[in-house]
Design brief:
The longest helix has about 35 residues, at about 70-105. This protein has 23 helices and 14 strands. Helices cover about 50% and strands about 10% of the residues. The radius of gyration is 24 Å and the shape is globular. The chain has helices at about 10-25, 30-40, 70-105, 115-125, 135-150, 155-160, 165-170, 180-190, 200-230, 260-275, 285-295, 310, 330-335, 365-380, 405-415, 420-425, 450-460, 470-475, 490-505, 520-535, 555-565, 585-595, 605-625; strands at about 235-240, 250-255, 280-285, 300-305, 315-320, 340-345, 355, 395-400, 435, 465-470, 515, 545-550, 570-575, 600-605. It starts with 10 loop residues before the first helix and ends with a helix. The structure holds FE(4)-NI(1)-S(5) cluster (NFS). FE(4)-NI(1)-S(5) cluster (NFS) binds near residues 287, 288, 519, 554 and 556.
Length: about 625
């Protein structure tokens, strides 16, 4: 067992944190300490700011209106969940509009890269009659956008993707949703003053938002991005701040929707293709946009949500260009220490002190070139004496495990029955179970400690691990995404399965954990689980699987959690959301939910206790299935 104190943190991040401190750049870690020290108990209070009788701070019994502590806490949780769901629905809306424009022929910078996936979505959504791919694109986009806005009727995407058994259960429990936006409006409505004061009703409302997040946010995002930018295939890239090249012009693409990043990468390729241009432009990814371009374009990955200021602190970044979400406004302060330009591009996501160049899909190529020119012109302002990149090699990472890629690889193991290849190994115990480890990284404890130790414990015990989101960053810094034929730290029987899959596919090895993409690609996880459940002819909640978000921080993680539990998955979270002051709410989330959905939340910060519990749950499910 490795304690927090003994955990060897990524030395690159460690070095850069020290450097940032010396330069007077405050990073997320400093701000965390400062704010947390001041409001140590805040997360455990029940505070209501809904009406002007209040605010009712640290409510012991009831607020001024008579709302109990339990209701206040449930209501606040619905509010956070709605914010999270709105982020993914916003993503779905933006990408739906892009697909529509491509279909109509007005967004010429993009094209339909995957007609097969388009056709699958088209038919899956119940559409017919279109003749050309462009017509299909318009119809798919309209269906997705209609899913976001319809006042009545279930979203087509939910009908298409969720298993029949789940749909029936959700209908029985009264949480089958209509359009994403009306659902979010109703969630806001139910938490207005004098409205819903029934804890269970409120929390079932949060479950609805989980479905909204998935079927009106994550699924549309993944599906359309695959159609426009290609379905990810296995790819090898380099990770960590050390991919920043002091000899080149460095541009960071940051955010969540790869639409702008695609144009920037294209413009950089164009620039680099001219031999007269020197130094070259080095485009690097950050947060989920980084994951999107690493999965599909093999772009190296510079860092996660916690490393934003540190990347700038190298002094070697000419341009950081952001789209939406997970951008710490503090990057502008960090950039002010150097020549670095920060550019925002979404009208809903501006930062004071940054330059705003609004993204316009009709002019995507032009904007991409404009941004690259900006970076090139800014290079002369770089002070080389202020440049410092720690002297370590970047890490190797294999990614690209889309559902399609996984199926294709398994098909080589068992031709004609790829899911069977997985199911056989689950049945015979070579794969003890599957854990989806997802979400962010937090400044709460040693950088990556919880995630990395949990992953190590799981793979050691033959649990196959699939990853999405920023947890993959720290996993890669500890070489858990590096293919190594000796499978270090991987349980023997799991290593044998991975080796067999690798051999069948002409690969030297698979990485110890399989990276499936950005947070919206959690939708891929359901695809895999649905396929396994169908093959075994059981419900998802019967499968030997678990989900874990050991270090979640964003609101988006909360609806994702509700969706996972509503699917019937045992879902671990590393930190209590702001609900601890209500025993009733905690009990409902960590206990009562199981009776309703077959899944529940489990809260534990310690990675070893978490792994033990996940293994216990998986073993129990195996026993119940008689395998
Ligand atoms: Ni996910 Fe992407 Fe990272 Fe967390 Fe933010 S980047 S959507 S929310 S911090 S994993």
């Amino acid at each position: 067992m490795i304690t927090k104190e003994k955990f060897v943190v990524d030395p690159v991040t460690d070095e850069m944190r020290k450097r940032a401190r010396k330069l007077g750049i405050r990073t997320v870690w400093e701000r965390f300490k400062e704010n947390h020290a001041r409001s140590k108990d805040a997360p455990f209070q029940a505070t209501c700011m809904t009406c002007q009788q209040g605010p009712c701070v640290d409510v012991k019994r009831t607020g001024v209106c008579g709302m109990s502590k339990d209701i206040i806490i449930a209501k606040n949780l619905v509010s956070e969940t709605a914010i999270g769901a709105s982020a993914h629905v916003g993503h779905g809306k933006r990408i739906g509009n892009i697909l529509r424009g491509v279909g109509e022929g007005s967004f010429t910078a993009y094209s339909i890269k995957e007609p097969e996936k388009l056709d699958m979505a088209y038919k899956g959504l119940g559409l017919s009659g279109a003749e050309t791919d462009r017509e299909k694109a318009v119809e798919v986009a309209d269906a997705v956008l209609d899913d976001l806005s319809k006042l009545t009727g279930v979203p087509r995407m939910l009908v298409y993707r969720a298993l029949a058994e789940r749909k029936k259960l959700w209908e029985e429990k009264g949480i089958l949703i209509s359009g994403g936006c009306p659902e979010i409006m109703e969630a806001m409505n139910r938490i207005a003053m004098g409205m819903d004061a029934d804890m269970e009703n409120l929390l079932m409302g949060a479950c609805r938002l989980g479905l909204v997040d998935s079927y009106c946010g994550m699924y549309p995002a993944t599906t359309i991005q695959d159609i426009l930018f290609s379905v990810p295939k296995l790819v090898q890239i380099k990770t960590n701040l050390t991919v920043i090249n002091p000899e080149e012009i460095n541009v960071i693409v940051h955010g969540h929707i790869p639409v702008l990043a695609d144009a920037v990468v294209g413009a950089a390729e164009e620039y680099n293709a001219d031999p007269a241009n020197s130094p070259k432009v080095n485009v690097l990814g950050m947060c989920c946009t980084g994951m999107e371009v690493l999965m599909r374009k093999g772009v190296d990955y510079a860092g996660d949500i916690l490393q934003q200021e540190l990347a700038i602190a190298t002094g070697a970044i000419e341009l950081v260009v952001v789209d939406i979400q997970c951008t710490q406004p503090a990057i502008v302060d960090a950039a002010n220490h150097f020549h670095t330009e920060v550019v925002t591009t979404d009208p809903m996501s501006k930062i004071e002190g940054a330059t705003h160049i609004e993204f316009d899909a009709e002019r995507a190529d032009e904007i991409g070139r404009e941004l690259i020119t900006m970076a090139v012109d800014n290079y002369i302002n770089r002070d080389q004496t202020k440049v410092y990149v720690p002297n370590y090699e970047p890490h190797d990472m294999m990614g690209g495990f889309s559902t399609e890629q996984i199926i294709e690889a398994l098909d080589k193991v068992k031709p004609g029955d790829p899911v069977g290849a997985l199911v056989d190994n689950i049945k015979n115990g070579n794969i003890r179970g599957v854990a989806a480890v997802i979400g962010c990284v937090t400044p709460r404890d040693e950088y990556g400690y919880r995630t990395v130790e949990l992953l190590r414990e799981l793979i050691k015990n033959d649990i196959m691990v699939i990853l999405t989101g920023c947890v993959a960053t720290v996993a890669s810094y500890h070489d858990l995404l590096k293919p190594d034929p000796s499978y270090p730290g991987v349980g023997e029987s799991l290593a044998d399965v991975m080796d067999a899959i690798a051999t069948a596919n002409g690969l030297e090895a698979l990485p110890p954990c399989l990276f499936m993409g950005a947070c919206v690609d959690n939708s891929r996880i359901e695809e895999v689980l649905n396929a396994v459940a169908n093959h075994l002819n059981v419900r998802i909640d019967q499968l030997p699987v678990a989900a874990s978000a050991p270090e979640y921080i964003a609101e988006k993680a909360i609806p994702i959690g509700f969706w996972a539990v509503s699917l019937g998955i045992f879902t671990h979270i590393g930190d209590q959301p702001n609900v601890a002051a209500s025993k009733r709410v905690v009990k409902w989330l960590t206990d009562d939910m199981e009776e309703i959905f077959g899944g529940k939340f489990y809260v534990e910060a310690d990675p070893y206790k978490t792994a033990k519990k996940i293994i216990e749950v998986i073993d129990e499910k195996r026993r119940a299935l008689g395998i």
